[in-house]
Design the sequence.
């Protein structure tokens, strides 16, 4: 079988990367929330808040992969415990889409410490502690793209 070449514009469509970056964010439902069977409730809160789920994966992290994902915290005293916790059970990784996605999602998840999180936020409802805080949310457009690319190939994102 012989394959011909497609015109370049069909192979490489134009993508507005600025819009893509500001309208997408990355999240992970952490092992504590997965173990507590909160996946459905958390995903429901996310979609009810107007986010579109464009990629979703139930998976797990080895200690080495957790270390790579959280490498930015390598010098922090909690790094080893964080990597151990994040590799302790399955997680759900997702790329979400919405206008001003990063800031909107950070507001939806609430403060890292659930005791300080606002009522109605994901962490207030589902987090156990500052260490077991149910979800991860990207803190910038740049990190959202890096973190999304860590978990998803180009063929897995819509």
Sequence:
């Amino acid at each position: 079988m012989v394959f011909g070449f497609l015109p370049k514009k069909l192979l490489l469509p134009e993508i507005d990367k600025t819009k893509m970056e500001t309208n997408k964010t990355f999240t992970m439902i952490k092992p504590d929330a997965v173990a507590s069977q909160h996946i459905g409730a958390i995903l429901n809160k996310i979609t009810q808040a107007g986010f579109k789920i464009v990629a979703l994966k139930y998976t797990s992290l080895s200690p080495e992969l957790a270390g790579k994902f959280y490498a930015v915290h390598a010098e922090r005293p909690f790094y080893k415990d964080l990597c151990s916790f994040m590799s302790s059970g399955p997680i759900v990784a997702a790329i979400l889409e919405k206008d001003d996605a990063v800031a909107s999602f950070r507001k939806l998840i609430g403060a890292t410490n659930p005791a300080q999180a606002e009522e109605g936020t994901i962490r207030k409802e589902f987090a156990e502690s500052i260490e077991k805080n149910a979800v991860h949310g990207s803190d910038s457009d740049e990190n959202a793209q890096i973190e999304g690319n860590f978990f998803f190939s180009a063929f897995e994102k819509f």
Observations:
- Residues 6-10, 15-20 have pLDDT under 50 and may be disordered.
